[in-house]
Amino acid sequence: MSALALVVVAVVIFYLAYRYYARFLAEKIYRLDPDFKTPAHELEDGVEYVPTNKHILMGHHFVSIAGAAPIVGPAIAMIWGWVPAFLWVVIGTVFGSGAHDFGSIWVSSRHQGRSIGDLTSSLISRRTRALFLIVIYFLVLMVNAVFALVIASLFVRFPTSVIPIFVEIPLALAVGWLIYRYRRAGILLPSIAAVVVMYIFVVLSGLYGWEYRAPAIGSEIVTWVLILVAYGFVSTLLPVWVLLQPRDYLNGHQLYFGLALIFLAVAVGTFTAGGLPIVAPALRLNPAGAPPIIPFIFITIACGAISGFHCVVSSGTTSKQIDKETDARPVGYLGSLGEGGLAVSAILACAAGFTTVAAWNQHYASWGAAGSLGAMVGAYVHGIGYFLDKAFGISPIIGATFAAVVVVSFAATTMDTGLRLQKYVTVEVGDMLNLPVLKLGWVATLIAAATTALLALYDGEGKGGLIIWPLFGTTNQLLASLALLVISVFLRKLMRPTIYTVAPMVFLLIVTTWAMLFNLRDYWAKASWGLFVIGSVILISAVFMIVEAFLTWREPGAAKQVAA
Amino acid sequence: MEGAGRGKTGRRLSAGLRMKPRVILVRESPEILTCSNCAGTLEGIEAYGSRRVPEYAATRAVMHRVGRLYAALRREFGDQVEIDVVDPRNGLYLIPALIRDYRRYRPPLRVFLKTLFFGIGPTTVIVNGAALLIGELPEPGSLMQSVRACLEDLDGAAREGRA
Fold first, then answer.
1. Chain B residue with minimal CA distance to A121?
2. How many other CB atoms sit within 10 Å of the CB of residue A24?
3. Looking at the domain assignment, is residue B11 inside a domain?
4. SS3 label, residue A366
């Protein structure tokens, strides 16, 4: 089977899903009303509540939900073969993510644009809102740790990507100065010029083999994690306009350019000599050291199939700008399909980006081997390099350096954001407990950076990425279940069919609980007490949520009346 | 907010005129950050129950100033003017929209190119494909004047077309 055939299958399924299933949800379940006065009109202030053209809103929504996670998850899940990963991405996107993101916008727009976290306490209970906060805190902690490991692994595996990434920092600083201080230059030319300069360094690094290897403190990965956490500490203390915001402009170009280039390379490469056949095995039930495919495939791929984090953007931001309620379908459902497309691109690169099965096996030999996270994410990077070589004759090392730079740029922004979030939560805790020391910005940041480093390096060698990743996936899916629960409770209150949101919710609760029980047994056996505690908190949260869902379900009248 | 049709000025586009002036208010939103969603959006922390963080105070100040312009435009012109509020990172929408506006309203090529290459920024107001001030927000009065002039131009063009 060729890679292009897989693209065609995915596009056809996504098209049919949008045409029929999303329309069914819109007309029969959510019953979108084009005359409903959305919060954007009801509370129109030109600041946060602005009736916004659906095409504009789709752009805003998509850039916010896309990122590195829909690349990393499928790249890891390929260890079980390409068919399970592809099926879960497609089915999860169509029936899970689509209903979840679309439903989050709808339920929030029916409640004056309030966030899912806020609605949780209104529609279910205050206790569940506390659960929401716990889940978020652990999710952010794991995101930081795992992305630090992803970046470190890519730097070790593709050392030609180090210089372009470090060149990106002064470029972003310069762009930030031009945009926010000089102000006359606009953003288009400076940000495009910065990306071009960065890519010139990609080419030079590939051509001349400009590599940088960090001195090993225990291992090179440990050194990189420490450098990254130190960088995160400094960058989190800086105002957002200095580095975070300007780097975001560079990332935006990379997102669109990268996606377009990958699919173009697949289309062109298919018609070159030998084409782009899928060489990865269709199914591998027992790869060495890997946890069981079921339930782990469902939590290994979270973003790209269904991600709880989307409810934060859908309900907190997008819902305040929906012009007509019927726009929730193109914005929410198409946004999900876009992220599914990003995950499909990752599967393509990892499945067809190799010449032989033996070459593929080098990346997917074993789950737990040293550097296996880097090997699996490296499969994506290698695959993109192969596609670019095949389609456009670009040297594979330049292509791989380019792909590594894109993934690292995305992951670094996510990590920067996550560290800031942890800082805010710590300050908040300091406020609640009346501990002034925790309210000092640098102390809160230090705690955020230190906990990230501790989790990333809990084994002393920085090999724990593939242990933390399932924890991240589990927590993310738990958050998605929570959002689906809120949507389902509201549907039940309106006496409408709930099976379309309850089914994915129940499914996610089962797989997350199952996976976590398996993980806990493993942590116990290996005496990984820190992970055991984190896993236990997540498991208790899942059980607690099941109980809350059951109680709310039994007494629909107990769901508080809110403006609908 | 003003309803559809007639604004406070009582001005109305000539019957048969399909083209409305278009104002694009370009300003950043703290909730939009590419690739941030794997960690929730920054100001989304408020959605988690925390107080609003001050990181984006400058961005929020711009949002509020743009909000005042938006309200003034709506009050003055109602639905006679198309208004879009767009984040400058939304290039997928903005660039085609500017090209479309160039073809629609025919501003001078130099002005269009200047708008395209220098006008997409954290604070810009674009009227009929031409940036009013780059890197600064106009006062409501001067913005109203520009939009009024556009309405008159379009009105005149429509009358000439009919004649």
1. B49
2. 13
3. no
4. strand
Helices (H), A238-371: 244-270, 293-300, 310-316, 328, 334-352, 357-363
CA nearest to A188 within chain B: B117
Report the number of distinct structural domains present in chain B.
1
- B37–A66 CB contact, under 8 Å: yes
Tokens 């000092």 belong to A440
**For chain B, how many residues are written?**
163
Contact state of A420 with B47 under an 8 Å Cβ cutoff:
no
Please indicate, yes or no, if residue B82 is contained in any of the structural domains: yes
Q: If chain A, 564 residues long, is cut into consecutive pieces of 10 residues, what is the mean pLDDT of each piece?
A: 92 97 97 95 89 87 83 94 97 96 93 81 73 74 88 94 95 92 84 94 95 88 94 89 87 85 89 89 91 94 90 80 94 93 93 91 82 87 94 94 93 85 77 81 90 88 78 87 90 93 94 92 88 87 79 63 42
The distance of B143 to chain A (nearest Cα, Å) reads 15
Q: Measured between beta carbons, which residues in chain A are less than 8 angstroms from residue B33? A: 64, 244-245, 248, 413, 417
Within a domain: residue B51? yes
**CA–CA dist A516, A521 (Å, integer):** 9
In a domain, B81, yes or no: yes
Domain region containing B49 = 22-162
B65 to chain A, closest Cα gap in Å: 8
Judge whether B133 and B125 are in contact, CB under 8 Å.
yes
- Searching chain A, which residue's CA lies closest to the CA of residue B97? A56
Total beta-carbon pairs less than 8 A apart between chain A and chain B: 208
Most distant CA pair in chain B, distance? 62
Q: Are A250 and A175 in contact (CB under 8 A)?
A: yes
Task: Report ipTM (2 d.p.).
Answer: 0.81
**Could you give the CA distance from residue A265 to residue A271 in angstroms, rounded to a whole number?**
10
